[in-house]
Design brief:
The complex is a heterodimer of chains A (117) and B (110). Chain A is mainly β and 117 residues long. Chain A is 0% helix and 49% strand. Chain A is globular. By secondary structure, chain B is mostly beta strands. Classes of the chains: A mainly beta (117), B mainly beta (110). The A-B interface holds A 33, 35, 40-45, 48, 50, 56, 58-59, 90, 99-100, 102, 104-111 and B 1, 4, 31-32, 34, 36, 42-46, 49, 51, 89, 91, 93, 96-103.
Amino acid sequence: EAQVTQNPRYLITVTGKKLTVTCSQNMNHEYMSWYRQDPGLGLRQIYYSMNVEVTDKGDVPEGYKVSRKEKRNFPLILESPSPNQTSLYFCASSHPGQMSSGANVLTFGAGSRLTVL
Amino acid sequence: ILNVEQSPQSLHVQEGDSTNFTCSFPSSNFYALHWYRWETAKSPEALFVMTLNGDEKKKGRISATLNTKEGYSYLYIKGSQPEDSATYLCARNTGNQFYFGTGTSLTVIP
């Protein structure tokens, strides 16, 4: 089954304790991205990656790092989490390609709810 | 930040009613406009992606239109059913980046 898998789905941690949220896709998609969902703000893009070893900042990159060493994986790293990073996080992937073919449509993971105390 | 705005924020309709929502976006530097359906406790799922001014897409009872010159898209649901209850998100895609609206929450009352 074509899917984007995120782990963990739920995590409660404390300020300053480094954590990584993993994201893996099995569709051979070039494009991967991370979003956070906060009440009243909509989905906001944190980082995106156009392909292996190519990453770039989205709208809200502060406090986050990413890496893209393999095509299928795009982990989100919080080096020193703070309470304002408490949020629902989504990873998504797509195949950029030709827009007319319906490409670039995002496939989302199930979400990871992170609480930083 | 390239703001995408959606209205209304929430909507309650009776089963069988038809309804529509609006997505407004800056018309400059346009690449594509996406609609996603997001059910509670699930992840967003793609409905449509539109790229050309005047595009119209349809999937069953749901359809969407796009006006890139004035910067808006409409999503229509004909004969709403309880299973249509969800949040409907639109997103402006500039090629590499996605800018989402805050969504329209639809509740269809049986």
